[in-house]
């Protein structure tokens, strides 16, 4: 997950992301950025997340929880 | 005695599965996919399923394709008379995230695997000059652009470039064509269709609405038949009028 957080920071073009950061607060956040994040999650965890599901999460921590839930299924 | 097969990649679901079901009425099939359960589901839907072969293989392992296909053909005393490349993955992302690693993943499955399969099937010691027909399931995005489809569009454009050169290089023995579908109802698309905004946009963009997988399978059937004997080297668009539609939105 450490590696994914680095990639997430890279996509959002910030030094580091924190678990309580709200995704929509990042300057780089838009619909196309969210698709890049979905593609990265798919490649790294073999987990499919829809754009609708991504919109429903608020913080980086929520996103990590969503990925973990999907991995468990 | 050798037996002739039609090889279909991406046969476990969506367009590839429907093509398999259609062609199984009149042909022996070699069904390729990495998803074993999906392949078995396709086999159950096919006619005469005892005649068909399964090739469980992950096409992202391009370097192992030649050995694997040679083995399956030799072990089953079979040849491939036609190849339908329906396998494909889609990655939608910003260009600044489309790095080499992402590019290789999508190009390996969508493009390089097809090139390697064809290169293998053209070897006399593997396929005995049996190949007569090649069809790529490309996409209208290989000809037109869309936000975030940078790599995906490139793989389809690459397939179509290969198709045109092969149509010339391999004539008259082999006919080679690409089918460029627009939006087709697949399990993945059905998920997006729960969004009312997407449904409304499709109504505006597609004069004939979304396509069905059987629309693509019917065209494959035609391109494999003698009725299309004078067609080669073509990008055939099948999109319910999507690319003809210049209406103001």
Q: Provide the gyration radius of chain A in Å.
A: 11 Å
Provide the CATH architecture of chain B. Answer: 3-Layer(aba) Sandwich
Helix/strand order of chain B:
EHEHEHEHHEHEEHHEHE
Strand order within the widest sheet of chain B? 3-2-1-4-5-6-9
Query: Helicity of chain A, in percent?
Result: 55-70%
Rounded to the nearest angstrom, the radius of gyration of chain B is 18 Å
Low-confidence regions of chain A: none
**Would you tell me the overall average pLDDT of chain B?**
94
The rough form of chain B would be described as: globular
The N- to C-terminal Cα distance of chain A equals 17 Å
Structure described in brief:
The complex is a heterodimer of chains A (73) and B (249). Chain A has 73 residues and is mostly helical. Chain A has helices at 2-11, 31-45, 51-56, 60-72.
Can you offer a commentary on this structure?
The complex is a heterodimer of chains A (73) and B (249). Chain A has 73 residues and is mainly alpha-helical. Chain A is 60% helix and 0% strand. Chain A is built from four helices and no strands. Chain A has helices at residues 2-11, 31-45, 51-56, 60-72. In chain A, helix 1 runs antiparallel to helix 2. The radius of gyration of chain A is 11 Å and the shape is globular. The mean pLDDT of chain A is 92. Chain B is α/β, with parallel strands linked by helices and 249 residues long. Chain B has a single domain (3-184, 213-239), classed as NAD(P)-binding Rossmann-like Domain (Rossmann fold). Chain B has helices at residues 14-23, 36-45, 65-75, 100-121, 124-127, 150-169, 187-192, 196-205, 213-224, and strands at residues 3-9, 29-33, 53-56, 78-85, 133-137, 175-181, 184-185, 211-212, 235-238. In chain B, strands 3-2-1-4-5-6-9 form a seven-stranded parallel β-sheet, with helices on both faces. A two-stranded parallel sheet of chain B has the order 7-8. In chain B, helix 6 (150-169) links the parallel strand 5 and strand 6 (175-181). In chain B, helix 1 runs parallel beside helix 2, helix 1 (14-23) packs across helix 9 and helix 4 (100-121) packs parallel to helix 6. The radius of gyration of chain B is 18 Å and the shape is globular. The relative contact order of chain B is 0.14. The mean pLDDT of chain B is 94.
């Amino acid at each position: 997950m450490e590696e994914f957080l680095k990639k997430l920071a890279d996509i959002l073009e910030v030094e580091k992301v924190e678990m309580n950061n709200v995704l929509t607060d990042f300057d780089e956040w838009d619909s196309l950025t969210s698709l890049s994040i979905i593609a990265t999650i798919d490649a790294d965890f073999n987990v499919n997340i829809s754009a609708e599901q991504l919109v429903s999460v608020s913080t980086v921590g929520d996103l990590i929880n969503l990925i973990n839930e999907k991995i468990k299924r | 005695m050798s037996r002739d097969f039609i090889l279909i990649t991406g046969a476990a679901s969506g367009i590839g599965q429907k093509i398999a079901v259609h062609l199984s009425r009149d042909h022996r099939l070699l069904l390729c996919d990495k998803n074993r359960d999906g392949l078995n589901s396709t086999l159950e839907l096919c006619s005469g399923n005892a005649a068909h072969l399964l090739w469980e293989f992950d096409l992202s392992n391009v370097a192992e394709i030649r050995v694997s296909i040679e083995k399956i053909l030799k072990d089953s005393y079979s040849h491939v008379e036609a190849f339908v490349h329906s396998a494909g993955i889609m990655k939608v992302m910003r260009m600044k995230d489309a790095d080499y690693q992402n590019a290789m993943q999508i190009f390996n499955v969508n493009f390089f695997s097809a090139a390697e399969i064809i290169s293998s099937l053209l070897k006399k010691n593997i396929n005995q000059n049996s190949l007569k027909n090649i069809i790529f399931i490309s996409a209208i995005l290989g000809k037109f652009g869309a936000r975030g489809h940078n790599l995906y569009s490139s793989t389809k454009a690459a397939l179509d470039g290969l198709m045109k050169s092969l149509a010339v290089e391999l004539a008259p023995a082999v006919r080679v064509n690409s089918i460029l579908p627009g939006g087709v109802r697949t399990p993945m698309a059905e998920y997006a269709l729960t969004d009312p905004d997407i449904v409304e946009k499709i109504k505006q963009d597609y004069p004939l609405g979304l396509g069905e997988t059987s629309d693509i399978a019917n065209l494959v059937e035609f391109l494999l038949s003698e009725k299309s004997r004078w067609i080669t080297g073509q990008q055939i668009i099948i999109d319910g009028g999507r690319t003809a539609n210049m209406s103001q939105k």
